[in-house]
């Protein structure tokens, strides 16, 4: 049973902490069933039955009470999409002054990465289908290109992820949530500066 993102209400069952029963909760998608001393993980909806059902059984220590007015759909964006995006943005060291190129920017992880990068004060360049460009601008993307764009040509010297004699900042972080840019473009960019950050993440 698939379904990685899960929020709902705790039902009574044998061994369940009664203080949790009836509470609204989020479930961590990527679970450390043997504790954080172990690197072993199990994914909800992949390694175990997921949330595309009326009920789901998960370890109690992977459940977190929430108290907010977000809808179930809004809350369910947090565990996988925003969790993945936050991990990518944090590991890449995105901060004010960074210029971040995000591929697949209109998807779940991509749009989360856009918002998290914008919130940190970064300049964001997005890649997505043209039908999604206006939505991305509303999220705060500074520049947006179609999936068929040659980004090296479109960005010119700014694609060097190194330095530029122009007044425009170069791309310092490539946050790839889709494979096509890595295959078509990044090999032409990557070799110019080994200190640039290329981080890849998807939520499937």
CATH superfamily of the largest domain: NAD(P)-binding Rossmann-like Domain
CATH architecture classification of the largest domain: 3-Layer(aba) Sandwich
Reported for the largest beta sheet, the result is: 5 strands, parallel
Looking at how many chains there are and whether they match, the oligomeric state comes to single chain
Principal-axes shape call: elongated
Record field, number of beta strands: 10
Element string (H = helix, E = strand): EEEEEHHEHEHEHEHHE
Going by helix content, strand content and strand pairing, the class is: alpha/beta
Number of domains: 2
CATH topology descriptor of the largest domain: Rossmann fold
Helix count, per DSSP? 7
Portion in helices: 25-40%
Give the low-confidence spans: 161-167, 181-193
Give the neighbour order of strands across the main sheet.
8-7-6-9-10
CATH class of the largest domain: Alpha Beta
**Cα-to-Cα separation, first versus last residue:** 14 Å
If you compute it from the alpha carbons, what radius of gyration comes out, rounded to the nearest whole angstrom? 20 Å
In words, what does this structure look like?
The structure is a single chain. With 204 residues, this protein is α/β, with parallel strands linked by helices. It contains 7 helices and 10 strands. It has helices spanning 72-75, 78-91, 108-119, 133-139, 151-155, 179-184, 186-190; strands spanning 7-9, 24-27, 30-31, 42-43, 63-65, 99-103, 123-127, 143-145, 173-176, 197-200. The strands form 3 sheets. A 5-stranded parallel β-sheet has the order 8-7-6-9-10. A 3-stranded antiparallel β-sheet has the order 1-2-5, with no helix packed on it. A two-stranded antiparallel sheet has the order 3-4. Helix 2 crosses helix 3. The longest helix has 14 residues, at 78-91. It is elongated. The two termini are 14 Å apart. Mean pLDDT is 81; it is low at 161-167 and 181-193.
């Amino acid at each position: 049973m698939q379904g990685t993102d899960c929020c709902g209400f705790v039902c009574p069952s044998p061994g369940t902490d009664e203080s949790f029963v009836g509470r609204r909760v989020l479930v961590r998608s990527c679970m450390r069933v043997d504790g954080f001393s172990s690197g072993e993980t199990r994914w909800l909806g992949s390694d175990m039955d997921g949330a595309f059902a009326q009920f789901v059984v998960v370890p109690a220590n992977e459940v977190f009470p929430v108290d907010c007015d977000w809808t179930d759909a809004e809350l369910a964006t947090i565990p996988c999409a925003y969790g993945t995006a936050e991990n990518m943005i944090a590991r890449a060291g995105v901060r004010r002054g960074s210029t971040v190129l995000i591929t697949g920017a209109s998807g779940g992880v991509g749009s989360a990465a856009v918002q998290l990068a914008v919130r940190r004060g970064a300049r964001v360049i997005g890649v997505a289908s043209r039908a999604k460009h206006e939505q991305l601008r509303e999220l705060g993307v500074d520049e947006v290109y179609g999936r068929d764009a040659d980004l090296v040509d479109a960005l010119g010297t700014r694609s060097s992820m190194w330095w530029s004699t122009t007044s425009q900042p170069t791309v310092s972080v490539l946050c790839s949530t889709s494979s096509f840019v890595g295959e078509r473009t990044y090999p032409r960019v990557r070799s110019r500066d080994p200190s640039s950050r290329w981080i890849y993440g998807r939520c499937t």
